[in-house]
Amino acid sequence: MGPRGERWPKARPHLRNVFMYKVIDRIMQGVFLFCGLVTVACVLVITVYLVVSGLPAIGEIGIIKFLFGKVWASTASNPTYGILPFILTSIYGTFGAIILGVPIGFFTAVYLSKVAPLAVKKSVGFVVSLLASIPSVVYGLVGMLVLVPAIRKAFNLADGATLFAAIIVLAIMILPSIINVSMTSLDAVPRKYEEGSLALGATELETYLRVSVPAARSGIVASIVLGTGRAIGEAMAVMMVSGNVPNMPELFGSVRFLTTAVASEMSYSSGLQQQALFSIALVLFVFIMLINMLLRKVMSGGESK
Amino acid sequence: MRKAKENLWKTIMLACTLITCAILIFLIGYVLVQGIKELSINFLTTSPSYTTGNIGILPDIMNTVYLLIVSLLVLVPLGVGAAVYLSEYARNHRIVRLIDNAAEILSGIPSIIYGLVGMLFFCQFMNQQTSLLAGALTLVIMNLPTIMRTTRESLLSVPKGLREGAYGLGASKWRVVRTIVVPECLDGIITGCILSAGRILGESAALLFTAGFAHTLHGFADGITSSGATLTVALYVYAKEQGEFQVAFSIAVILLVLAVLVNLSAELVRKHFNGKRNV
Questions:
Q1: Chain B CB within 8 Å of residue A11 CB
Q2: pLDDT at A10 (0 to 100)
Q3: What whole-number distance in Å separates Cα of residue B234 and Cα of residue B211?
Q4: Of A25, A132, A236, B231, which has the fewest Cβ atoms less than 10 A away?
């Protein structure tokens, strides 16, 4: 028996067994290789399906008209498919969420990593992980019934389901990723750096903000890029609070995102309309791939230092 | 002056932390207050019916359970197998990098795209129609990177000496993997399962077009081959399409309880295995 109670493997000297073991070994190696390659196959299938089903509509509509058309009227008798409103809404919405969410997340991370006592760090850490695991429909539900009416009253609008409401919900939803990733990289800053700065007479907070934060820069930037990816890909919560009308984006207007454009019409669409929805998904996929590449660049930049 | 600045920064940080906590407390409090009064045994154990006007979420609960079981059954062998391949078998760096990159790409793809491709591939190409099985397989792809990551992290901490000892005794590779490597990385596998379960319970966008909206009660075998709404999808349908906010909030209460349970059990597993590792 081994130290943890497991059985040590026994040697089997018989020749026939050795042969059998070799065969089984080979088979199992193949099985494991198959498991590994499933991920690669999935990525290929996703890419191929999106490209194959997304390109025909773009070809039929014309790429300029599709990407830069300002009017989306898929159910009109003479339908037009321009997705500029969705693209801009997704960009503005994500940008807004970053502007609102990053400062709060960043300062929370610095506080938790450097200032807070261990007990506070642990309990707020639990709060953050809980925030991360609340389903997006619950965010959408509360946003729909609390935030939307509040915005309607506060800004005296006809309908509170606006880009602004979506930005607030998205900002809350990206908080956990920003806090967690920034905190991990802030925790990893060598204590020596901070001690050096303190010994030179800097106050604690000066040290944290001028020494620790720059040292953890790549992790913090990575957290922002990760948050961007989350925000641009979120569908359900945004669908419930943004009004879902294909207008050009206005802060206090009803809008539709790239994600919600796909989700809201898919169930009853057909023909060119459905193909156009696949094309929107393809555009979204391209955005996500760009963000992924940026993320990888930021991460590898941090490692090479 | 310096002191004042120091205090100002500290206040700002504390305020941000408090905002984070306040958001969670408000969310949980509001959902509990709104949802708990409608939560009854009848609500949890009956099916909805148009003729009597009864609203019950038993079918949605069962669908969620079926979905969870099927997804984890496929997910765990695949994910653990991939992780074991990467750390024990792979010799070729190019293959390792290829698989790593693929996993990284998968973890960044938004769930709505999974839903769409799941619909095209599983429902239409593989001819499964809109069914829980199609939904489960879509979720498997989505969660592969998670379980691969947690399993690999814990594989890294398996002492090299254990493997070498076993090889030295003449054990074959498969035997070492089966008797030493996999049992030793159990904590990573369990953590991966819990994290994936949390994501599966909370997922909705990927399920809308793959698993559908039906609220009919089925047994396991019928259930996985027919369309069915999980709790999250049911919440969305009740809130957005039918305007039944009371029902939606009651479902939200259940989802929140599940989220807390998932987090607590992840914490417990970590503590349990940390204690073991340090001995």
A1: yes
A2: 59
A3: 11
A4: A25
Best of B116, B189, B246 to mutate (most A CBs within 10 Å, chain A): B116
> Could you tell me how many residues make up chain B?
279
Do residues B10 and B115 both lie within one domain? no
| Residue B240, SS3 per DSSP | helix
Q: Which residue has the higher pLDDT, A95 or B241?
A: A95
What's the pLDDT score for residue A303?
A: 52
Are B102 and B177 in a shared domain?
Answer: yes
| Domain A83-304 = CATH 2.60.40.2100 | no
Instruction: For residue B98, give both structure tokens.
Output: 């290829």
- A293 to A6, A202, A282, A288: CA distances (angstroms): 44, 38, 16, 9
Q: Which residues numbered 79-108 in A keep a CB inside 8 Å of some CB on B?
A: 103-108
Q: For residue range A273-289, what is the model confidence (pLDDT) as tens digits?
A: 888 999 999 999 999 99
B77, B209: one domain: yes
Range of the domain at B170: 39-47+56-278
CATH number at B218 reads: 1.10.3720.10
Note whether A9 contacts B166, CB cutoff 8 Å.
Answer: yes
Q: Let me know whether B61 and B197 are in one domain.
A: yes
Q: Which of B12, B17, B249, B279 to mutate to test the interface with A (most CBs of A within 10 A)?
A: B17
- Write the CA distances from B14 to A173, A262, B10, integer angstroms: 20, 40, 6
Q: Does B21 have pLDDT greater than 90?
A: yes
pLDDT in tens, B99-146: 999 998 999 899 999 999 999 888 888 887 888 999 999 999 999 999
In terms of Cα–Cα distance, which of B130, B109, B144, B114 is closest to B63?
Answer: B130
pLDDT of residue B279: 43
**Together in a domain, B141 and B266:** yes
Which tokens belong to B127?
């001819």
**How many Cβ pairs closer than 8 A exist between chain A and B?**
267
Of residues A103, A278, A288, nearest to B108 (C-beta): A288
- Asked whether residue A305 carries a pLDDT value surpassing 50, the answer given is no
Q: Is A141 close to B235, i.e. CB distance below 8 A?
A: yes
Would the CB atoms of A39 and B106 count as touching at under 8 Å? yes
Check A136 against B267: CB less than 8 A apart: no
Residues B229 and B214: beta-carbon distance below 8 Å: yes
Residues from chain B that touch A42, judged by Cβ atoms under 8 A, are 102, 106, 141, 144
A6 and B209: CB-CB below 8 Å? no
Least confident range of A18-22, A80-84, A130-134, A139-143: A18-22
Count how many domains chain B has.
2
Amino acid identity of residue B42, one-letter, is N
What is the chain A residue with the closest CA to B120? A49
Residue B26: pLDDT over 90: yes
- My answer on whether B14 and B97 are in the same domain is no
